Amino acid sequence: MLTLNMRSADRKSDYIYRQIYRQLKKEILLHHFLPHEKLPSKRDLAKGLKVSVNSVNSAYQQLLAEGYIYAKERSGFYVEKLDTLPVPFGSSRALNPELAESPDSRKDWLSFSHMSADRSCFPFDSWLNCEHKALRSRRTELSDDPSRFPQGIYSVRRTISRLLSVTRGVKCFPEQIVLGGGTQVLVQLLRQSFFQNATFAMEEPGYKRIYRLLTMQHADVRTIELDDRGIKMNEINRINPDVLYITPSHQFPTGIVMPISRRIQLLNWASRSENRFIIEDDYDSEFKYECDTIPSLQGLDAFDKVIYIGTFSKSLLPGLRISYMVLPQRLLKAFREKSRFIMQTCSALIQLTLQEFIDSGEYRKHIKRMKQIYSERRMRLIEELGKKFGDDVTIYGANAGLHFMSAFKSGETVDAILRRADEEKLELYSLRRCFLRSCINDREPRFILGFANLSKENIEEGVNRLYRAVYG
Ligand code: 76U
Questions:
Q1: Structural domains of the chain, ranges and CATH numbers in brackets
Q2: Which end of the chain is more exposed for a tag (fewer CB within 10 A), N or C?
Q3: Ligand 1 mean position to 446 CA, how many Å?
C-alpha cells in the first residue's frame, strides 16, 4: 500500500492532492508499479492515507490528464505502460556552469558604449502617464486579436507617419508603415517577403547584426567599402546587387553623412532596374549637431525604390523594442499577401503608450532636451580627447548620432588596449565589431566612442581611463 512522505510543514504549504499526485507519479516513473496494475480505489487510498476522497480524486484526475494512468469504466484506475526514461528519474538537473548567466553588475564602470540611449534622462514618469492613459482609454485595441493588425495598430502608424513627415521628410501613408520589435525583425520580414533570392550589398565597415542575420540564412551578401561620401558607387555598378542596405544619415559606424550627390546617384541607380531596392537604415538621425537634421533619402525618392527603416532605440530606449519600416507602395500588396500569417511582434501596450507619448508632445520635448544634453556631452568629450591626446587622436563622423569614430596613434594592438580598458573598468568597443568580412587592415587602433552613457561629470575620468588603456 502507498504511503505518503508528508511532513506536517508540507501539509500546510502544499495541497494534499499535489503531494499524492507527486508521490504516485514518482512511483510510476520508477516502475514500482507493473504496467496495467490496478491502483487502489479512491476510498481505500483515502482511508489508508487519512485524507479525504476528494484529495485522492483530484490526484487521480491529474495523473489521468497527463497520461500516467487510465480509467476503465466501473472498474477503476490502471497504471499506463511506460518506457524507462534514458536518464534516471529524479537525477540531478543542475545547470551546467558553462551555461550560467551572471547578472551584469558593472559597478563603478564607465561606458563608451554606442549601444544605448541615456537612461538617467528618460522621462519615466511621463511614459508611465501615457501607459496609464493607454490602459484606461484604449481597451478595445489592447484586447483585440493582434492578428487583426499585422502591420501594427493603425492609429499608431498614423502618428508615426506624421512624425516622420515632420522630422525626417519621409513621405508616406500609415498604410505603408510596418511596426516590429527591432530592426532585425523588419529586415527578416523583408527578406522572407521579397528578397529570398536577392543579392544584397552592405557597407564595409557596417552593421554586423544585419550582415550576420542575412548570411546565417545563406543570403548572398556582398560588402562594399566606403569613400568619403559613403558606399562606393563604382563598386555598386560592378557588383550589381538587387538590394543595397545603407545608413546614409550617419554611416554606421564611421559617421559619414552621405552628401546629396551620392544620394542622387544611388536613387538613379535604383531606378534603372525594376528589381533594385535600397534599404535606408535611419537609426539615429534625430540627433544632428551644428546644423539642422538632414532629410531622409526616402523623401527624395520619386521612384518608389527606398524602404525606410527607423527605430525608437536611440531616441527613447533600446529595451522598448519598437522599430518601423516604410514600404514603397509598389511592394505593399505583395507584402500583405506574403506576410498574412505573421503576427505583429511589438506589444500593443508599447505601441499605444508610444502613440500617446508622441501625440501629447512629450516625445518632441524629450528629443529637444536630449539634443541639448547629447550636444554638450559630445562637445565635452571632443574637448577632453583633444586635451589628453592632442594630435594622437583623430575623430571622424561626429556630426550626428550618439557616437563617433576615433583613431589613435599608438604602437599598441587593439587587443591589448581592450584588455587594459577592461582592467580600467571602461566599456569600450573597437571598430572590429563592424568589419563584416574582417579583412580590413586596422593600421591605427580605431574605436567607436558612444557618449549617451557618460554623464558630463564622468567624461574627463572616462578619457583618463581611455588614455591609460591606449598607452598602458
Ligand atoms: C539599430 C543600426 C546601424 C539599427 C544600429 C542600431 O533593433 O531597432 C550596434 C552594434 O534596436 P534596433 O536596432 C537599431 N541600425 O547601430 C542600433 N545599434 C545596435 C543596438 F544597440 C548595436 O552591435 O554594434
A1: 8-79 (1.10.10.10), 110-115+365-471 (3.90.1150.10), 139-360 (3.40.640.10)
A2: N
A3: 19
Name all residues whose Cβ lies below 6 A of ligand 1. 115, 182-184, 207, 209, 247, 252, 281, 283, 311, 313, 318, 323, 433
Protein residue closest via CA to atom 6 of ligand 1: 283
Distance between Cα 115 and ligand 1 center (Å): 7
- CA-nearest of 275, 204, 246 to 434 is 204
Helix orientation angle between 16-29 and 53-66, rounded to the nearest 10 degrees: 50
Residue nearest to atom 15 of ligand 1 (CA): 283
Please write the tens of the pLDDT for every residue from 373-417.
Answer: 999 999 999 999 999 999 999 999 999 999 999 999 988 999 999
Residue closest via CA to ligand 1's atom 20 equals 115
Residues with Cβ within 8 Å of 440's Cβ and at least 6 positions away in sequence, in order, are 204, 205
- Ligand 1 center from residue 430 Cα (angstroms): 15
How far apart are the CA of 363 and the centre of ligand 1, in A? 20
CB-based contact 182:372 (threshold 8 Å): no
Ligand 1 atom having least distance to the Cα of 209? 23
pTM to 2 decimal places? 0.91
* Burial class of residue 223 in the structure, from the number of CB atoms within 10 Å of its CB (0-12 exposed, 13-18 middle, 19+ buried): buried
Distant-in-sequence contacts of 217-225, Cβ < 8 A, 24+ apart: 217/191, 219/191, 219/195, 221/436, 223/436, 223/437
> Which are the contacts of 449, defined by CB distance < 8 A and separation ≥ 6?
112, 114, 381, 385, 403, 404, 405, 406
CA nearest neighbour of 278 among 264, 293, 290, 291: 264
Q: Which residue's alpha carbon is nearest to atom 10 within ligand 1?
A: 115
State pLDDT tens for residues 244-282.
Answer: 999 999 999 999 999 999 999 999 999 999 999 999 999
d(CA 351, CA 354): 5
| DSSP assigned state of 457 | G
